Structures are given as structure tokens and as C-alpha cells.
């Protein structure tokens, strides 16, 4: 159980006493208001919380910008060299000072433009696959936080139930003491237990405030949202397709990486093709501009070893991604087996408490209360049976929480190295 610790330093100097008291009152009010957030916020369903998280999440917005950026870069597929403008002046025809102005432009030929465009399209798809992985992680985080809050609510309800039981017990103990049927020890013990439950109630309010802020953090909203109170405490797992979904996400991501490296290799190979240049010149002879013409040329990459090496490096990257995919598939397979075993274990425990445990606990409490009220049971026997029933209910709540955590993990297996 999580606790928030606050410490207060009270200055004993007389002229600061009133100020210190006002400060304590203000802090107390702030604490109470923080508790109210945990129970009086905006109620949302799990699906609505996930939708809000995907809409508000900063990382997903950054991913959208990355997709937008890669889409804008498609316009760079056609990459012509800078325009070359050259001026020449001097006595290169006669004693007169003549002028020569030339303009030349080299253009890519062959498959380089197509290769660049295909590479950029694959980069766009890779950004989309990466965003899908982020959405998966957000959905898992919101679901865990959502059911953690519901667990806190269930513990709070159990504590309220205990409060009602021990309040009733205190009344019976006081009645028996007043009639001389029992000693004062029963009253003192009952009062101590009621005070303990009141203290735990405050702690649980702190816990709910923490759980609410955790959920709010993952949803990334300024609203004080809380889970819908009608949501069942037990997580309803969708077993069909859960494995195939995460497998599909992992496979699609790494296969897209492979596609990027393939197109990258094609781009480097296409860079080894010549470039075509076209030009125009105008020249004066004897200071008269009556002469002009056109030029054509090729840029031939005689030393193409750099692009060949880059293409080879891209081919190696393809092999790396294939190995990463195989590793993640194996890791996911083993993880699913482990998670399934843990889920089966938690489900068996939960089945016991739902079918038998809670039923026994209610019978123990009801029978013990009647017997104690009628004087058929001693104080120590009553406390023993009551503690047994309470322990069963606590274990049931913990079993439900353990089941939920196991089910959520099985629903959303972890994806590593992404």
C-alpha cells in the first residue's frame, strides 16, 4: 500500500502560534480537497479513457509530426544538382575585352528518383508502425492504472464494511459491559479497532488520490477523471486474438524496417548511375554578343565504391532486422507461456474465493455476530472468527487484483527493444 507522508514543523514562539495554526488549517483543507478528487472526478469508461489518452498523448502527437515530416520529404525524391552559372571575361578571342556567360544544370537519370520516392514511402510506413507500437503501450498503461484504481475502491469498500461490523461490535460490547456480562477489555479492544479502521480509511483516501493521478497522468488530461463505478472489479480479458495482435505489431514493425533497408540499398545502387547535364552559353567576339550555343555532358561516378559500401551496409541491416524479428518472436512465445501459467494460477485462486471463500466469510461473520449477541460465544472466540472472515475477504480482494494484473499482462504482453 502506498502512503504519502507529510511532516509539519510548529514554531513554538508565541507571536507565531496563530500563524502556524492558520497554516495547519490550510494544509488540512488542501489534503481534504485532494482526497475529493479521487472520488468526485469525471467518471469515464475504460474505452473512453484509452481514447482520451490516444488523443492527448504527447508522444503520439510527436509520432504524428514524424509521419507528417516524412510525408513532406517525399518532395525531395527528385534531387537535381544546383544550377551552375559562370562568367568569363578577358582577351580570349582578340585584343578586345570579351565576355562569356554560361549556365549548366545536371539532372539525375535512371532509377534514382524512383528509388528515392520508394524509400521515402517506406519511411512513412515505418513511422506509422512505430506509432502503432506507442498506441499499444499507452493502451496497456491506461488499463493497468484504471484497474489499480478499482482495486483501491474495492479495498475502501471492504474497510467500510469492517467499520460497520466493528461499530456494531462496539455497541454490543458496551451493552454487555453495562449489563455486567463482560469486562471493560472488550470495549477497549473494540474502540481500538474502530480507531484503527478510521486511520486506515484516511490512508486509503491517500491511495485513491495517488491512483487517480496515475490514471490522469497516462490519459494526460487536466480533468480529474475516475473509472466508471459500474465497471466490474474483475478485468474482462479478450483472449481471442491477443497474441496475434502483438505478434502482428512486432512482425509488421520489423518487416517494415527490412523494407526500408531494401529501398535504401536500391537508392545507393541507383546513385552509381551517371547524371545528364545541359547548358547554354552566350559569348561576345570583338565585344559583340552575336554568338551563343548549347552544351551537353555526363557526370560519371568512376569511383563508386562509397555507394557500393553503403548498399552493402544496408543489406547487413536487413539481416540484423531479420534476427531481431526472430528474437522477438521467440521472446514473445516464451513470455506468453509464462504469462499463461501465471494467469491460470491466479484464476484458480480467484475461483476459490468467488465460489467458496467469500460465502464462508459471510457465514462466519453472520453466525459469529448472532452467537456473540446472544451470549453463546465468548469475546475471544468472536474476535478469532471475525479476524478469520476478514482475512478471507482481504485475500479475496488481493486475489482479484492479482488476477487483473495477470490478465492485463496476458492481454498486453511486453514488447522489447522498440
Structure description:
The chain has 418 residues and is of the alpha+beta class. It has a single domain (41-411), classed as Outer membrane efflux proteins (OEP) (Up-down Bundle). It contains eight helices and six strands, in the order H-E-H-H-E-E-H-H-E-H-E-E-H-H. It has a four-stranded antiparallel sheet, with no helix packed on it. A two-stranded parallel sheet has the order 1-4. Strand 5 (275-285) and strand 6 form a beta hairpin. Helix 2 (46-56) packs across helix 4 and helix 3 runs antiparallel to helix 4 (112-178). The longest helix is centred in the C-terminal third of the chain and has 69 residues, at 305-373. It is elongated. The two termini are 32 Å apart. The model is unreliable at 1-21 and 23-35 (pLDDT under 50).
